[in-house]
Amino acid sequence: MTVFVDVMHGSATGGLARILGDSVREINSNRDPLFDGGAPEPLPKYIPELFRQIKTHKRSEDSLAVGFVFDGDSDRIAAVDGEGNFLSSQILIPILIEHLGTRRGFGGEIVKTVSGSDLIPRIAKLYDLSLYETPIGYKYIADRMLSAQVLVGGEESGGVGYGVHIPERDALLSALFLLEAIVQSGEDLSQTYRRLQEKVGFSSVYDRIDLPLASMDVRSRLVEQLDHNPPKEIAGQAVKDCLTVDGYKFRLADDRWLLIRFSGTEPVLRLYCEGADQKQVNQTLAWAKDWASNYQ
């Protein structure tokens, strides 16, 4: 197996290579406090070279390949499978739950944030693991890890931590666990994800967009609407309920959800959505953008 790692000029440089040796091919491995002028975020738009190298490998070699991307301080992770598909932590966390809870035999709670995938509680239930949900922010997961036995705690932005380790995110350890899952299951990460979806009868597609607001006054108008006149229908679907643990999470009639949440530090509206397919997600996010534009 060939392992590609985009360390984004950050602190993970040389980490996996020291453990795994010549099977690791590092990208952006020169440490740079300015990150070569880019954003060290584990997102598809920032990793064109990783996509290119994996696609080149697919054309020229028969061996299995996987790619990992770490953010600048190596606490957040994403992956790219051997076919060139991007895998966010919404996909990786269910895989980690199955691997650590079955092959490794670890126990404990599964901790997710309010923006975590609906697949996570389904996989937890499948393996008789309890679930604990927190507001968004790893500090809430860490607090739970200090007060309870936790197997895996993770957030949609890529931070994943483990009760057998320390109450903090660790992308390097996540990559090692995922590599172990690949070797022991004999499956590509995407194959495992599809199998898990089929096993619990749940199809999941997730996306998120950040929408700049013209001013904090716009934010105030949006909050006023959400508090006193929330939508009763979104993208043609009736709203079943609204959870306000952190932001406004609308559950729709067909079980997709939309989370509307404001940045705490800047005039930005964060829109999160999960649905059965990409069309549902695109329709819902487009509706949310149009709705917000009415108050700009």
UniProtKB/TrEMBL annotation:
GO biological process: carbohydrate metabolic process
Pfam families: PGM_PMM_II (PF02879), PGM_PMM_III (PF02880), PGM_PMM_IV (PF00408)
Protein keywords: Isomerase, Magnesium, Metal-binding
GO cellular component: cytosol
Domain annotation Alpha-D-phosphohexomutase C-terminal: ranges: 233-284
Molecular functions (GO terms): metal ion binding; phosphoglucomutase activity
SUPFAM superfamilies the UniProt entry points to: Phosphoglucomutase, C-terminal domain, Phosphoglucomutase, first 3 domains
Residue ranges occupied by any Alpha-D-phosphohexomutase alpha/beta/alpha domain in the UniProt entry: 2-84, 92-198
InterPro entries from the UniProt entry: A-D-PHexomutase_a/b/a-I/II/III (IPR016055), A-D-PHexomutase_a/b/a-II (IPR005845), A-D-PHexomutase_a/b/a-III (IPR005846), A-D-PHexomutase_C (IPR005843), A-D-PHexomutase_C_sf (IPR036900), PGM (IPR045244)
UniProt protein name: Phosphoglucomutase/phosphomannomutase, C-terminal domain protein
